[in-house]
Specification:
2 strands; alpha+beta; single chain; globular
Length: 79
């Protein structure tokens, strides 16, 4: 898996996905994108993709995914 997108309803800590997930490279290398389902429309656009939301979704997710898979675990994925 190159990246994981988590749709959350609150600030997410490091204990997502359970103990097995915590050991997977996608987590240990920081290739996760957290999208707040309430504070902006990106979470909604991710959950309910429509022709009208697709451009908004792509504009918001592409920079986040690019940061997540840049190969540098120190890169902070923008909120």
């Amino acid at each position: 898996v190159d990246a994981i997108i988590w749709i959350t309803d609150e600030a997410t800590g490091t204990d997502v996905g359970g103990p097995v997930y915590q050991t997977l490279p996608v987590h240990t290398e920081g290739r996760e994108v957290f999208v707040d389902s309430y504070d902006n429309g990106l979470g909604t656009a991710t959950s309910f993709v429509t022709p009208l939301s697709l451009e908004f979704l792509l504009d918001g997710m592409v920079p986040k995914l690019a940061a997540a898979i840049d190969g540098d675990p120190d890169t902070v994925v923008p909120d």
